[in-house]
Design brief:
It comes from Tenacibaculum tangerinum. This is Biotin/lipoyl-binding protein. Keywords: Biotin. This protein has two helices and 15 strands. The strands form three sheets. The protein has a seven-stranded antiparallel sheet with strand order 2-1-7-6-5-4-3. It is 8% helix and 53% strand. The termini are far apart. A hairpin with a 2-residue loop joins β6 and β7. The chain is mainly β. The protein is globular, with a radius of gyration of 17 Å. The protein folds into two domains: 75 residues, no CATH class; 70 residues, RNA polymerase II/Efflux pump adaptor protein, barrel-sandwich hybrid domain (OB fold (Dihydrolipoamide Acetyltransferase, E2P)), CATH 2.40.50.
Amino acid sequence: MSKSFKTSVNKTHDFDFTKAEIAALDIVQKSENDYHVLDGNQSYQATVLQTNFNKKSYTIQINGNSYEVRIADELDMLIDKLGLEVATEKKENDIKAPMPGLIVSVAVEVGQEVKEGDGILVLEAMKMENTLQAPKDGVVKSVAIQVGDKVEKNTILIEME
């Protein structure tokens, strides 16, 4: 059984993909967030404008048009089918690295008040810069990393109160 994904585009269109179908695309990375995609005889210019790993949502521009894309994998679909809450909805005090990467910038300091959704740091992973956002309103309790640090997945980056 091949791994499958469900995507929702602009909350109006749903698409299902398998890992094999994604691998069959001819994708060339032109720069940090820009890609050229060839699907059959169709050519697409794609730019990743914004990412939110906690909500698995992305803003992508394809051939000049912007799209809000949400991606669900098999586990997300099972959780939804069972009517359970997704763990990312739980508001935690620790902000952890969603994947291994390099800390490019830190936009907060200890004692600073932040609002839910505020960009708090930038993590470079797989040649893409990803802005991590505050999961809730609060005050920064501690910053465990600094610019230039290499981090592993689930490393605590920032603690909030």
